[in-house]
Amino acid sequence: MNTQPDIQVVIEYLEDPENEQHKLALDKWLQQDAGHLDIFLEMRALWQGDVLPAISSYNTTRQWEQLETQLDAPQPLTVAPSTVTPVKKISPRYWWAAAAILLLVAGYTIFHQPAYLVKQTAQKQDSLLLPDGSMVYLNAHTSIRYPREFKTRHITIEKGEAFFDVAQKPDAPFSVNTDKVAIQVLGTSFNVKDDGRAVKVFVQTGKVSAAFKGSDNKVTLTPGVEAALATANQKIETRRPQKNNNILAWKTRQLVFEDSPLTAVAAALENCYHVEVVIRNEQLADKKLIASFRNLPLEEVLDIMEKTLQINISHKNDLVEIY
């Protein structure tokens, strides 16, 4: 949010509120952010020498309606005399008000910082070093939120998938929340994926506790174990995937298939390359693939699969079809 207004625009309007150009400039700035109205009201009170009320005491809706009416009010047309406009001497009050407004805006910027920060990814992956030294790796299409003051080590996954490498601080537990699942750790590395139907937690090192919020239904996970917490019925299923399970392939960019059925290959490709993979011929579902791919583009992977399994694959936009 841009909370640093153009001081000159605001002051020009306050000096000459009937000037149409000043009205337009102020209106444009007010439309940029909803928070600008609060700043303007405080500036106007300072300018007029009023005692500043708390922001919460403003009837923002009524003030906005009144200001819109004032800005939209037509003014009588006047013809300026054809004389040279004298240079206007700036009064000491102007400088006092400007200085007061600058202090006001600086204070607003400092004390109105958002309590939480948001990190989002679109098509590409990204990583984030947290203030406590922990690392977060975000898959594509992921959004997380965390406190600006990271005294309580708490992360919220709003959507998507993230891998956490948590710095060990026994006196400060690290927690990760999704919409319906809470995860507690002390120092470990683990993966969390919320696909809307279930929250999947896979532990690489350490120990993790995952529970449904407001419930005693929870599970403790050790290295190599994955839990799927179904949000619809609060059912928890755990499994120990094979060593080369490709759960972290989106992060490592390495896919390993050891006699893997094509259905498992399709699921791994979907998660790693963010495409939909459809097996059109059901007879191909049990075909087995032995191959490994390290940081290869999807087109190369599909080409190798075609030649190795002697199948047909088409790829258009985000859809891969196997037949």
Rg from alpha-carbon coordinates: 29 Å
% residues in beta strands: 25-35%
Q: How many E-type strands?
A: 18
Low-confidence stretches: 1-5, 51-58
CATH class of the largest domain: Mainly Beta
C-alpha geometry: elongated
Q: How would you sum up the major sheet?
A: 13 strands, mixed
The fold-level CATH name of the largest domain is Jelly Rolls
What portion of residues is helical? 25-40%
Topology as a string of helices (H) and strands (E): HHHHHEEEEEEEEEEEEEHEHEEHEE
What is the CATH architecture descriptor of the largest domain? Sandwich
Beginning-to-end CA distance, first to last residue: 50 Å
- pLDDT averaged over residues: 81
Number of helices: 8
Briefly note the structural class of the backbone: alpha+beta
Domain FecR protein: 123-208
Organism: Chitinophaga defluvii
Protein name: FecR domain-containing protein
Domain Protein FecR C-terminal: 255-320
Would you write up a description of this structure?
The chain has helices at residues 7-15, 20-32, 36-48, 60-72, 92-111, 249-252, 262-273, 298-309, and strands at 116-120, 126-129, 135-138, 143-147, 153-165, 174-177, 181-185, 189-194, 198-205, 208-212, 218-221, 226-230, 235-239, 254-261, 276-279, 288-294, 313-316, 319-322. It has 323 residues and is α+β, with helices and mostly antiparallel strands. It folds into 3 domains: 7-74 and 90-111, no CATH class; 116-239, Sandwich (Jelly Rolls), CATH 2.60.120; 249-322, Phage tail protein beta-alpha-beta fold. The strands form 3 sheets. Strands 1, 2, 3, 4, 5, 6, 7, 8, 9, 10, 11, 12 and 13 form a 13-stranded mixed sheet that branches. Strands 15-18-17 form a 3-stranded mixed sheet, covered by helices on one side. A two-stranded antiparallel ribbon has the order 14-16. It is elongated and about 80 Å long. It comes from Chitinophaga defluvii. Residues 123-208 form the FecR protein domain.
